[in-house]
Design brief:
The complex is a heterodimer of chains A (about 325) and B (about 425). With about 325 residues, chain A is of the alpha/beta class. Helices cover about 40% and strands about 25% of the residues of chain A. The two termini of chain A are about 40 Å apart. Chain B has about 425 residues and is of the alpha/beta class. Chain B has a five-stranded mixed beta sheet, with helices on both faces. Chain B is elongated, with a radius of gyration of 29 Å. The chains are: A alpha/beta (about 325), B alpha/beta (about 425). The interface between A and B is medium-sized, with 27 and 13 residues.
C-alpha cells in the first residue's frame, strides 16, 4: 500500500473547505414516532482521527450515521462537516459513506461500479480514471477490475464496497461494520486499508461490534446505548473510568448451585455462563475469596485473573440483557 | 407427511399477498373483461357510425335514408359535427365522405348516387341504375358487413312502394305490361303502400331480418378506401398493439431496478452523493423511455423485414408516436415502481394492470369489437391512444400534425404519472 499516494490523494479533495473541525455533532435528536433513536448526542472528530462507535443492536448508531450523511433529518441539534450543514453539497463532497449493506451494482464490473459512483459525485475525465485506478489499488482489486461484482468473493465485495465510498476522496469517512462476514485474511487487508486512509489524514468514524477491531483501529471510542453516549474516550480512559485500577476474577466451582450462588452474592459478584465473576482492587483479595469458598464446601475447578478490556467496559456500561 | 407440506405451502401463500392476488384476482378480472366483450351480458352494443351522402334526393333515396336512420345499431351522419368545423358544417359529399373514412371518423360511408331512385331495385344483378357505393375502412372487418346487411333490410322495409313500382316496370318491360284495369289496381296499391310508409315508419324496421350485401335486393358496390394497397394490412395494428403491451411489461420491469436498489442500500448511497431524487428519477425515466423506443424500433423493423410493413415511408410519424408512447409507458413503470414496496408486489400489480389495460385498450382484440362502454373505458389506457396513433400513421397515412390528440394525451399521461411518481418517491428521500 502506497501511503504517500493516499496522503496526496486525500489532500486533493475538498480543497475548498475551510480547515475547521472535520465533523461536529451537537445535541443531535432523531425520533421515529414515539421512539427516540438518537437522544442528544454530541461528538467531534479531528483530522486523521478514527473514532469507534460501539453499541448494542438498536442503540442508534446507524441512525446517527444516517443523520451525519444527510439521509435522515434530525428533529433537533446540528451536524457540521467542515462547518457545512449535513446534506449541503460541500458536506456531501467531503463525506464518504461505507454502508453495512453491499450497496453496489451486481451486473457492473469493479471498475464500472467505481466509475458510476465517481460520476455521481461529479468526477469525470482523467480525474475519474485516476480515482478509479487509485481505489482499485487501495482495495487490492486492480487485478479484478474487469470482473463483475457478483462474481467476487465476500471479502472482495466488502473491499469494493469500501472503495466505492471513498472514490471521490473524502476527508471524512463513515464506515458501518465494514468487516461483517469476511475471513481473517480479508479483515487484515481491510485494517491495512483503513490505516492507510488514516495515515493520509482522513478522519474516520468506525462502527463495529468487534471490540478487538475498535481496540486496534480507533484512537477513541464512543459507546452508545438507548440513543445516548454512555461512555467516550480512549481505550485506557474508558477502562479507567469504568473499573479504575480494579481487576476481574473468574472462578469455576463444583458443588451445590445454591451454595455457589450464596457465596457469589456474599462477595458482591455475579454468575456469568456458570462462572463466578468478581471485581477486585488488589490481587491479594483472591486468597480470601477462595478460602471462603472452601469453607462453604465448594470445590475449585478453575480460577483466572484478568485486567478489564473494552468488552468489559461495553458490558459494564450497556448491561447483559439481549436487545433484539 | 403430505398434510404438513400442504399446510406449510398454504401458510406461505397466505403471507405472500402478491401471489394471492395473482392466483385469484387476476383470473376473475380477466374473466370479467372477456365476459363483458363476448358474453352478450350487456346492453350497450357499440353503434356503427355511418356517413350518408344522398346525391339522388329522390323519394326512394330519402325513404332508404329514413330506413337506415331507424336502425338502432347505426348512427347516420349526413354532415360533420359542428364541433369539428369552425363554420356551420355543410353536408358530406362523396369526396368529403371518403376523406372522413380515410381519416378514421367513421368506418363506413354510403353514397346514394344520382339516378338511384330511377332504378332502386336490382333483380338478379341486372341493375339498370347506378349502384350504392359503400366506402369502407378495411381495418374494421365487421362494420362494412353489418352496414351492407342492414342496407338490404332497410330497402325491404322502408321502401316497399319503390320496390313495387320497380316490379311493375320490370313486368312492363319483360312480360308485356298490365291491362288498364290491372294498372289502375296496381296504382291504387302503390298509393296505399306510400301512405303506409308515411304513417308507419318505425315498427317495420325492427322486425325484419337483414339481407346479404351486394347479392341483395339493391345493388351495393363495396370499396375499401383505406388499406386497399397495403401489404399485411393488420401488421401495423398488431405491431402497435402487441408492442405497447410488451413495452408496458418491459418498462415496469426496468423501473423495478429502483426497488432492488432501495432494498440493497444502493439507492441510499446514490442519494448521499450529488444525485438528488429528482435527478435520479429523471435519469431512470430517460433510460426507460429510450429502452422502450428501442424495443419499438426492433419490433417495427422485424415487421418491415418479415411482414413487409411499410416502415420507411412513415418514419416521422413512427418516431413521434414511438417516443410519445415510450415516454408514457416509462412513466407508468416508474409510477408502479414507486408505489410498490418490493419486486414481488410490483410483479403482481403490474401483471394485473397491464393485462387489464391491454385487453380493454385494444392490444388483444380491436376496440371496435367491444361494447360502447368498454370502448370508452379504453380511452383511459395508454394502449388505446398509442394504437390509435400508430393506426393513423401506418393505416391512414395521415401526416404528423394529425397525431396531435394522441401525442397530447400520451405526453399528458407521461407527465402526470411522472409527477405522481416523484411525489410518492419522497418516501425514499429522507427518514
Amino acid at each position: 500500500m502506497n501511503v504517500q499516494l493516499m496522503a496526496d490523494a486525500s489532500s486533493q479533495s475538498s480543497s475548498s473547505l475551510p480547515e475547521s473541525i472535520p465533523l461536529e455533532v451537537d445535541s443531535l435528536v432523531k425520533r421515529f414516532g414515539q421512539i427516540t433513536a438518537v437522544d442528544g448526542i454530541s461528538l467531534a472528530l479531528r483530522g486523521g482521527e478514527c473514532l469507534g462507535l460501539l453499541g448494542p443492536n438498536g442503540a442508534g448508531k446507524s441512525t446517527l450515521i444516517r443523520c451525519i450523511v444527510g439521509r435522515a433529518i434530525p428533529d433537533a441539534g446540528r451536524v457540521a462537516v467542515f462547518g457545512c450543514a449535513a446534506g449541503a453539497s460541500e458536506a456531501r463532497a467531503a463525506l464518504g459513506w461505507v454502508p453495512q449493506e453491499l450497496a453496489l451494482y451486481p451486473r457492473l464490473t469493479c471498475s464500472e461500479n467505481l466509475a458510476a459512483f465517481g460520476r455521481y459525485h461529479g468526477l469525470s475525465g482523467a480525474k475519474l480514471t485516476e480515482s478509479v485506478a487509485w481505489c482499485l489499488d487501495w482495495a487490492a482489486l486492480a487485478d479484478r477490475a474487469g470482473d463483475l461484482e457478483k462474481s467476487l468473493s465476500g471479502g472482495m465485495k466488502r473491499r469494493l464496497n469500501m472503495a466505492a465510498g471513498i472514490i471521490h476522496r473524502p476527508r471524512v469517512v463513515l464506515m458501518d461494520e465494514p468487516t461483517v462476514g469476511v475471513d481473517p485474511q480479508s479483515r487484515n487487508r481491510i485494517f491495512e486499508m483503513i490505516e492507510a486512509l488514516r495515515a493520509g489524514g482522513t478522519a474516520i468514524i468506525y462502527t463495529t461490534h468487534y471490540m478487538e477491531e475498535a481496540e486496534r483501529l480507533c484512537d477513541r471510542v464512543a459507546i452508545i446505548d438507548h440513543g445516548r453516549i454512555v461512555g467516550q474516550g480512549t481505550n485506557r480512559e474508558l477502562i479507567q473510568g469504568s473499573f479504575g485500577s480494579r481487576s476481574q476474577v473468574l472462578a469455576r466451582f463444583a458443588g451445590p448451585s445454591v451454595a455457589i450462588a450464596a457465596w457469589v452474592e456474599r462477595h458482591g459478584g455475579r454468575l456469568v455462563d456458570g462462572a463466578a465473576e468478581f471485581t477486585i482492587e488488589q490481587s491479594t483479595q483472591i486468597a480470601g475469596l477462595l478460602d471462603d469458598a472452601a469453607k462453604a464446601g465448594l470445590e475449585l475447578v478453575d480460577v483466572s485473573l484478568r485486567r478489564p478490556n473494552l468488552e468489559s467496559v461495553f458490558l459494564h456500561l450497556t448491561g447483559r440483557e439481549l436487545r433484539d | 407427511m403430505i398434510i404438513p407440506i400442504v399446510r406449510t405451502a398454504l401458510i406461505a401463500l397466505r403471507r405472500d399477498r402478491p401471489s394471492l392476488a395473482l392466483s385469484f384476482i387476476l383470473p376473475i378480472a380477466f374473466f370479467s373483461v372477456f365476459a363483458a366483450i363476448f358474453g352478450g351480458q350487456h346492453n350497450s352494443t357499440a353503434k356503427i357510425k355511418v356517413i350518408l351522402v344522398d346525391e339522388d334526393r329522390s323519394r326512394a333515396s330519402l325513404e332508404l335514408a329514413k330506413g337506415l336512420e331507424r336502425e338502432d345499431s347505426l348512427v347516420i351522419s349526413t354532415r360533420p359535427s359542428s364541433k369539428d368545423k369552425a363554420a356551420a358544417p355543410t353536408d358530406y359529399t362523396a369526396a368529403t365522405a371518403e376523406a372522413a373514412v380515410k381519416a378514421g371518423e367513421a368506418p363506413v360511408a354510403l353514397i346514394l348516387p344520382a339516378g338511384f331512385g330511377q332504378h332502386p331495385i336490382s333483380f338478379g344483378g341486372s341493375q339498370a341504375g347506378p349502384a350504392i357505393q359503400l366506402l369502407s375502412d378495411a381495418s374494421d372487418m365487421i362494420a362494412p358487413q353489418m352496414v351492407a346487411g342492414l342496407l338490404q333490410k332497410a330497402a325491404m322495409t322502408a321502401m316497399p312502394a319503390a320496390m313495387a313500382e320497380q316490379g311493375m316496370k320490370y313486368t312492363d318491360q319483360y312480360i308485356g305490361g298490365f291491362t288498364p284495369e290491372q294498372r289502375k289496381q296496381m296504382d291504387a296499391n302503390l298509393n296505399y303502400l306510400r301512405n303506409m310508409e308515411t304513417k308507419d315508419s318505425s315498427s317495420s324496421a325492427a322486425s325484419a331480418t337483414s339481407g346479404s350485401g351486394s347479392g341483395g335486393i339493391i345493388a351495393v358496390q363495396v370499396r375499401s378506401v383505406v388499406g386497399e394497397n397495403k401489404n399485411g394490412n393488420m401488421i401495423s395494428f398488431y405491431a402497435a398493439a402487441i408492442g405497447v403491451m410488451f413495452l408496458l411489461f418491459t418498462a415496469t420491469n426496468s423501473a423495478g431496478a429502483l426497488l432492488e436498489e432501495a432494498e440493497s442500500g444502493t439507492l441510499d448511497r446514490v442519494l448521499s452523493s450529488r444525485v438528488t431524487m429528482t435527478t435520479l428519477l429523471a435519469g431512470k425515466l430517460t433510460y426507460n423511455t429510450l429502452l422502450a423506443f428501442a424495443q419499438l424500433i426492433v419490433m417495427f423493423l422485424w415487421g418491415w423485414a418479415v411482414f413487409k410493413l411499410d416502415l420507411f415511408t412513415h418514419i416521422p410519424g413512427f418516431v413521434v408516436m414511438g417516443l410519445c408512447t415510450a415516454f408514457a409507458v416509462a412513466a407508468f413503470g416508474m409510477l408502479l415502481a414507486s408505489i410498490c414496496g418490493t419486486r414481488a408486489q410490483l410483479g403482481a400489480l403490474s401483471t394485473l394492470l397491464i393485462l387489464i389495460m391491454s385487453s380493454v385498450g385494444g392490444s388483444m382484440f380491436p376496440r371496435y369489437m367491444m361494447p360502447a362502454a368498454m370502448q370508452k373505458a379504453g380511452l383511459f389506457t395508454i394502449n388505446a391512444w398509442a394504437i390509435d396513433g400508430f393506426t393513423k400513421v401506418f393505416w391512414r397515412d395521415l401526416p404528423v400534425q394529425e397525431l396531435w390528440p394522441q401525442v397530447g394525451v400520451l405526453l399528458a399521461i407521461g407527465i402526470v404519472l411522472s409527477l405522481i411518481a416523484r411525489r410518492i418517491a419522497r418516501r425514499w428521500e429522507f427518514a
